[in-house]
Amino acid sequence: MALDAKTVETLGDELYAALTGRHTITPFTSRGLDLDIEDAYHIQQRMVGRRIEAGERVVGKKIGVTSKVVMNMLDVHQPDFGYLLDGMVYNEGETIPMDTLIQPRAEGEIAFILKKDLLGPGVTNADVLRATECVMPCFEIVDSRIHDWKIRIQDTVADNASCGVFVLGDQAVAPHKVDLALCGMVLEKNGEIVGTGAGAAALGSPVNAIAWLANTLGRLGIPLKAGEVVLSGSLAALIPVRSGDSLRIAIGGIGGCSVRFQ
Amino acid sequence: MQLNRETIAQLAEHLENAELQAHDVVKITDAHPEMDWDDAYAIQEEIRRRKIARGTKIVGLKCGLTSYSKMRQMGVETPCFGFVTDYGCVPDGGEVKVAELIHPKIEPEICFVMKHALKGPGCHIGAVLAATDFIIPGLEIIDSRYRDFKFDLKSVIADNTSAARFVVGGQPQPVSEVDLRTVGLVMEKNGVPVAFGAGAAVLGHPAAAIAMLANHLGARGEEIPAGALILSGGVTEAVAVAAGDHINLRVQGMGSLGVRFV
Predict the structure, then answer these.
(1) B258: contact with A, CB 8 A cutoff
(2) Cβ–Cβ of B196/A181 closer than 8 Å?
């Protein structure tokens, strides 16, 4: 911890104002602040806290920075996480109003829906599979409140892991029915294939990602709760989206998800 | 055709020598800018003839440049096609001697083994699936004979589409058992996952590449024979390999295979 409580609060409020006012702010890491990742999570808590105060409810978590490419880009060797709130939820085929977002990008992912609590440390992949009700295809629409996505790891963590909104797909499958490391994903934008990937792109397996989060939160005494949705990390490159775009993913053995932007 | 028979024979010898002696050359269109598509395939055909005359068996066909983004990059609307040889075939788990190659790269593919002959024009995905005996995962080791992999499409066709070595293995499947669009592929180098993709990365569906091959051959009065093995094209970018590396490929529902470089 390098920042005092007052600064944490001010920075969290600044992000909250950017989120609700749909504008961007300069990266915290370019302001000469002595800011570590722990500080960044405290700022995140403040920003998310403001949303909860305003009436939103936590519905799950997201895991980010799960690919080697993004880790190298941000010069870190571990993922990050943020909170999913009920105001972020969209369903299969729905249209997302562009004026609710700032500079959105789409990621295709596998979402885990939990039926039991998971409390680390010591959570194994077997525990994750036992605690999972089903997995679903999912779009995470990431969005950054930081100007031009000029983020370093502290900026994105503070900004709730750059979470925007998310869309759950048209099918749910029991986790042991699918080889989660090998299931392939095809991402199409306006009918054109713009990316493919496979489960292993997220930390070697999406199950690893969930176990990592349960163990990381467990050290802080926080469980993943039954009923929560956990997004396990992008399986292909991020796709920028504009008004009028229509996107679809298909994940082998799981199902599909589609979304439009207007 | 722009080149005369002597020039075609001389270029085929030049390129085949580069392959057999493992040294690079500059792209042949530098000296022959007037060369057309028919010339390019005629040079490849002459290389094939030279090999057969020496007792080499042609054991399969291959499709190259099968992603829409690469094709757009090169300004063409069809992939390119080549052949693979008996001495290019490496058993699953076997060794590739890098001293016999110039600058090898490896890519994961879905391979088709045909039950019936297939003749274009007019071949489509349905015709390909109906004529396929089974599909099986494969690794293709490409090794352009051109310095620093710098080439244009005509040069690469003449150079037998960079074909060098290949491995097939894992769990064969009938086409009805696999969703070829979403089937996931994860390629690991020395135990680290390095490339991820899904079947749709190949022309939207790997069978589309086989259909285009049948149509390409049909236009020349030839066909894909029954029993043919066909490499349908790289699902991910090609990864450079060196002596000491080992590569493992895992494919959703289709097992795994590997190869070592010495």
Answers:
(1) no
(2) no
* C-alpha–C-alpha distance, residues A2 and B32, integer Å: 66
Nearest residue on chain B to A205, judged by CA atoms? Answer: B193
Ordered domains of chain B (ranges, CATH): 5-261 (3.90.850.10)
The predicted structure's pLDDT at residue B248: 98
Q: Which of residues 218-247 of B touch A (CB under 8 A)?
A: 235
Residues of B in contact with A192 (CB under 8 A): 68
DSSP A225: P
Q: A146-169: per-residue pLDDT in tens?
A: 999 999 999 999 999 999 999 999
Which residues touch B145 (CB under 8 Å, ≥6 apart)? B15, B18, B19, B24, B25, B102, B159, B162
Distance CA A80, CA A7 (A): 22
The distance of B182 to chain A (nearest Cα, Å) reads 5
Backbone angles phi, psi at A69, to 5 degrees: -60, -50
CA-based nearest distance B169→chain A, Å: 17
Contact status, residue A44 vs residue A125, Cβ threshold 8 Å: no
Domain coordinates in residue numbering, chain A: 58-261
Give the confidence band of A1 by pLDDT, cuts at 50, 70, 90: low
Average pLDDT, chain A: 96
Tell me if A199 and B184 make a contact (CB, 8 A cut-off).
yes
Instruction: Output the pLDDT for position B38.
Output: 95
**CATH T-level assignment (fold) for domain A58-261:** Fumarylacetoacetate hydrolase; domain 2 (3.90.850)
The pLDDT tens digits of the residues spanning A203-238 come to 999 999 999 999 999 998 999 999 999 999 999 999
CA-based max dimension of chain B: 50
Contact between chains at B235 and A235 (C-beta distance less than 8 A): no
List the beta bridge partners of residue B233.
none
| Residue A23 to chain B, least CA–CA distance (Å) | 34
> Are the beta carbons of B182 and A185 separated by less than 8 Å?
yes
pLDDT lower than 50: segments of chain B: none
Please, which residues 163-202 of chain B have a Cβ atom closer than 8 Å to chain A? 179, 181-186, 193, 196-201
Decide if A97 contacts A129 (C-beta within 8 A). no
Contact B201, B67 (CB under 8 A): yes
Interchain proximity A252–B198, CB inside 8 Å: yes
Q: What is the pLDDT of residues B196-214, one digit of tens each?
A: 999 999 999 999 999 999 9
